[in-house]
Amino acid sequence: MCLICVEFQKQKMTIKEARRALGEMIVGLEGEHVEEIEKMLKAAEEESE
Ligand SMILES: [Zn+2]
Fold this sequence. Notes:
Blueprint: H1 3-9, H2 15-25, H3 31-48
Helix pairs in contact: 1-2, 2-3
This protein binds zinc ion (ZN).
């Protein structure tokens, strides 16, 4: 869990904002967790279509 997950799950962040935040925070995150976030955002995008 990181700030992106927490804010996104509380719906305080949109998919677009989460993607931007991920781009900014990617250096400080574990590769495995980045994949998890990407999966989470992808699923959310598919749901919103
Ligand atoms: Zn996280």
